[in-house]
Design brief:
Elements: E1 9-12, H1 22-31, E2 37-42, H2 54-60, E3 74-79, H3 87-93, E4 97-100, H4 108-117, E5 121-126, E6 144-148, H5 163-177, E7 182-186, H6 194-199, E8 204-207, H7 209-212, H8 217-228
Length: 233
């Protein structure tokens, strides 16, 4: 299971990787210093795009480890509706964390329980317009809160500044709960804004095009870590 202790984690999103050589790309970003592999699943129903499924997750699982064999968590973000049917498939495929959107579940509490029953950490995802009030009844079952700082569906979008306010509120809720919950952000995360995002409360930072676009993964991740080192929490 993934380490859920508090520190900054950089999670490259393979949505922006070269799909013709995904295994190689996963190994490359891990070698460059990635902490988590973010795996975006879209169904062309809940969001207007179609990406990858459990078989790809299973194929990448052997590649998700450091040179010494230490496994790297696979963080599966389900942008699908309905969601319950596909959860066991991803758990069996090797996902460590599975998160979903409350709008995609008829019973949020039940879906969170299903994910945990499968041996995975459970996450709840909030679109820019989705209120955090969904957490009022399920905070005891959430291991990860993912704040979308773009509207889901496509990579390469610009960060929505209002997400910083939602991050601060989510961080307050986590502190009040007294639980060890990751606070993740996804969308438009780049070297020039990663510090501000972390200062707002995020500890897990998903970046796709910002890492895979320039080509030098190690240089980009190193630059991100240098910015994170300036953050005072």
């Amino acid at each position: 299971m993934p380490d859920m202790s508090p520190h900054f984690r950089i999670a490259p999103s393979i949505l922006s990787a070269d799909f013709a050589r995904l295994g190689e790309e996963v190994r490359a970003v891990i070698h460059a210093g990635a902490d988590v592999i973010h795996f975006d699943v879209m169904d062309n129903h809940y969001v207007p795009n179609l990406t990858i499924g459990p078989m790809v997750c299973a194929a990448l699982k052997p590649h998700a480890k450091r040179a010494d064999g230490t496994p790297i968590p696979i963080d599966v973000h389900l942008m699908v509706k309905p969601v319950d049917r596909i959860v066991p498939d991803f758990a069996q495929a090797g996902a460590n964390i599975i998160s979903f959107h409350p709008e995609a579940s008829d019973h949020v509490d039940r879906t969170l329980g299903l994910i945990r029953e499968q041996g995975c950490k459970a996450g709840l995802v909030f679109n820019p317009v989705t209120p955090l009030s969904y957490l009022d009844y399920v905070m005891d079952k959430v291991d990860l809160i993912l704040i979308m700082s773009v509207n889901p569906g496509f990579g390469g979008q610009k960060f929505i500044p209002e997400a910083l306010t939602k991050l601060r509120e989510a961080k307050r809720r986590i502190q009040d709960s007294g639980r060890d919950i990751w606070l993740e952000v996804d969308g438009g995360v780049r070297t020039d804004n990663i510090a501000a995002i972390a200062e707002a409360g995020a500890d897990t930072l998903v970046a796709g095009s910002a890492i895979f676009g320039p080509g030098d993964y190690a240089a980009t991740i190193s630059a991100m870590r240098a910015e994170l080192a300036k953050v005072k929490r």
